[in-house]
Amino acid sequence: MESSAILTPSQLPYLFPSKSNRKKAYPSWPCSKPRTSQPTRLHCQKMYVPGFGEASPEAKGAKNLHNFFTYIAVRIVAAQLQSYNTEAYKELMEFMDRHSLNDGDKFCASLMRESSRHKGLALRILEVRSAYCKNDFEWDNLKRVAVKMVDESNTSIMREYVLETSQAESEK
Amino acid sequence: MESSAILTPSQLPYLFPSKSNRKKAYPSWPCSKPRTSQPTRLHCQKMYVPGFGEASPEAKGAKNLHNFFTYIAVRIVAAQLQSYNTEAYKELMEFMDRHSLNDGDKFCASLMRESSRHKGLALRILEVRSAYCKNDFEWDNLKRVAVKMVDESNTSIMREYVLETSQAESEK
């Protein structure tokens, strides 16, 4: 059972009727290869995540962060230009009005083809996003904040539900 | 100069005219407190990231991942139910058709209020997203993939540009 590490069937009888010979498939978890953070395990204890095909949730998350890093790099470069190269700053802002930053790579490729001055800006953005991702972005902090966010959100969702239903009960 | 660790003015004379007495502000980087991964430094070498106010890029990234984890938890629970509790599976699918998963917390809060059976599903999703985020999601891998993605994208953007322009040159 994929979720045996988390919840046992006895804890959730409604969701886990006694039936255990399900077919297992782990397309997105290459569990047999050794991981850096944990020793190799003979049996994969991970939950099966469907719908990612050849990719993994990590790759999907990284793709998202990739566009985010491009957005940040554009903000960094714009802030740097604003104070001492207003002409380049205006050009960048004007370009941003016309092009979406949702796809970071596409944005940079278009910027590079706009003019030779824009090309300089594009190269700078590429360099900044690489440096930001490797040196400045606090990966440990990302994990810490995300874990805290899940805990706090779970607590608050459950607390609000209990408060709401207990009020409804007492009003009866 | 905030980006002194990455690029020196001499490398980019167009973007960095000689002017260095700019006002510094690091709202999102609490650089004075010691970090776990690096020793305390007297001067912050990080690039200034504007526009995040009190929050940080890490918090913004974590918020994004938070919704992603809820999405994954819903997929995990749905896949588990599909094979041995088709009734609950159908109920979850039907609920998903009516409610967006873009805001994961809102989705869970609504699911919890739908019916007592839906409440069971919501509690399970909350539990799974917490377990997934803490145990299953490969944070090291996320960083590795994201860094690789930036390097590869940068190379490919520059290569494509060079190929394109050299072709245009040779056609003249």
From TrEMBL, chains A, B:
Gene Ontology terms describing biological process: carbon fixation; photosynthesis; ribulose bisphosphate carboxylase complex assembly
Gene Ontology molecular function, alphabetical: protein folding chaperone
First and last residue of the signal peptide: none
Presence of the UniProt keyword Repeat in the record: no
Superkingdom classification of source: Eukaryota
Region of interest (Disordered), residue spans: 18-37
A Pfam family assignment: RbcX
Protein name as it appears in the record: Chaperonin-like RBCX protein 1, chloroplastic
Keywords: Carbon dioxide fixation, Chaperone, Photosynthesis
